[in-house]
Amino acid sequence: SQQGEEDPQALSIQEGENATMNCSYKTSINNLQWYRQNSGRGLVHLILIRSNEREKHSGRLRVTLDTSKKSSSLLITASRAADTASYFCARTKNNKLIFGAGTRLAVHP
Amino acid sequence: GAVVSQHPSWVICKSGTSVKIECRSLDFQATTMFWYRQFPKQSLMLMATSNEGSKATYEQGVEKDKFLINHASLTLSTLTVTSAHPEDSSFYICSAGAGGAYEQYFGPGTRLTVT
Predict the structure, then answer these.
(1) Is B41 close to A104, i.e. CB distance below 8 A?
(2) What is the pLDDT of residues A72-109, one digit of tens each?
(3) In terms of CB atoms within 10 Å, which end of chain B has fewer, N or C?
């Protein structure tokens, strides 16, 4: 499969806690993107991190990239019930997006 | 921001019939559109890439005669599922890009159920 690995597959936390999702890939990348998908909906782009960047922030989101380990993580701080969704990492290959398996996050009030 | 629409948002059809799904970029011209398929609790799998005015490029394992893709204009691409079978039931998502794969904007998806 061309898909990357994401862990955990599912994550259940309480509001206010932090959520960390990890993504690993096998080939070199130019950039990595993270997307969010609410149940039964389309994807929303969250962050793009380039291969020469190590960390990027956007509001309560923090993405790190370790190209030596071929891995990336998405941290959501102070989670809210509205953060409940599936989160996918995606890398670009041959002008196509290859998505990871995704992490299903459930944030309980 | 860039908006992509899909129509219909859901459709139920009988086995053997054909279904057409439209993907439109509402406020930008999309040189490339992508079609994905997603099964429940799974990730998105790219089916095909279409460029305006040319034939679509299908991913390995995707039947081009079953999933007909037309990208007739810079704002419209259509996916037609021909002779649908229950195993074609899935969530179909399109995306449109003005700058290749790096910058894709996703439609809200179409839920297809074949009975």
Answers:
(1) yes
(2) 999 999 999 999 999 999 998 878 899 999 999 999 99
(3) N
